[in-house]
Specification:
The chain is mainly alpha-helical. Helix content is 62%, strand content 2%. 27% of the residues are buried.
Length: 206
């Protein structure tokens, strides 16, 4: 991408998302000062993550430009949201008497249907993406004249931090907080792309 297309300008309407993401990354340095329970499934941090992603789904679903592409994006973000709760497994099938432990799909009656349902969902998204030629919209968005650098940098930083905390330090509280920061930066990008005028399509139906 031409460096002249890079923009370090911050969309101040949505800047609280970047501030919150940055605060989450700083908080990762002090996991010992936070409750261990924050690293559990269905914890306060994970519930905030779900709220942030649900906001991202709403942003995409209500976009006025490139509607087909952003409807597709809404379902992709929804897929990520469902993955956070293991597609309902960590909500509806806890192991009684044990902390942060859940039944596996193979231990759940007809649990195998979940795998087929997830596969069908992903296949449907793939068919829609290809049949509607949404890669064209994706390319147009990527080539837009004001690439929001800070949002992407913070999102990538969150992804890296989340991976390191899980794989190297095995600190699940910091991992969840880093993941929250990543989602906040991601939703900032969704807000910029779905709401900033220069990203709109002359034909809003496309």
């Amino acid at each position: 991408m031409d460096s002249s297309l890079l923009s370090f300008r911050i969309d101040w309407r949505w800047s609280p998302l970047l501030v919150a993401a940055s605060a989450a990354f700083v908080a990762c340095a002090f996991p010992d000062r936070m409750p261990l329970e924050w690293g559990y499934e269905n914890s306060l941090i994970e519930n905030i993550q779900l709220g942030v992603m649900l906001f991202g789904v709403a942003l995409c679903a209500t976009a006025k430009n490139r509607r087909s592409f952003y409807r597709f994006a809404a379902f992709v973000v929804l897929l990520c949201l469902l993955r956070e709760v293991s597609f309902g497994r960590t909500v509806f099938f806890p192991v009684e008497g044990q902390t942060d432990t859940f039944r596996k799909w193979k231990e759940i009656p007809c649990g195998w249907l979940a795998h087929w349902g997830i596969a069908a969902y992903i296949a449907g998204l793939t068919v829609f993406f290809v049949s509607r030629r949404l890669w064209k919209s994706l390319w147009e968005i990527v080539r837009a004249k004001s690439f929001p650098v800070w949002g992407f940098l913070l999102m990538l930083a969150g992804a890296l931090l989340n991976t390191v905390e899980e794989a190297v330090f095995h600190d699940y509280v910091a991992e969840e907080i880093g993941e929250l920061g990543m989602y906040l930066a991601f939703v900032y990008l969704l807000a910029v792309y779905t709401r900033r005028p220069e990203y709109t399509n002359p034909n809003p139906e496309k």
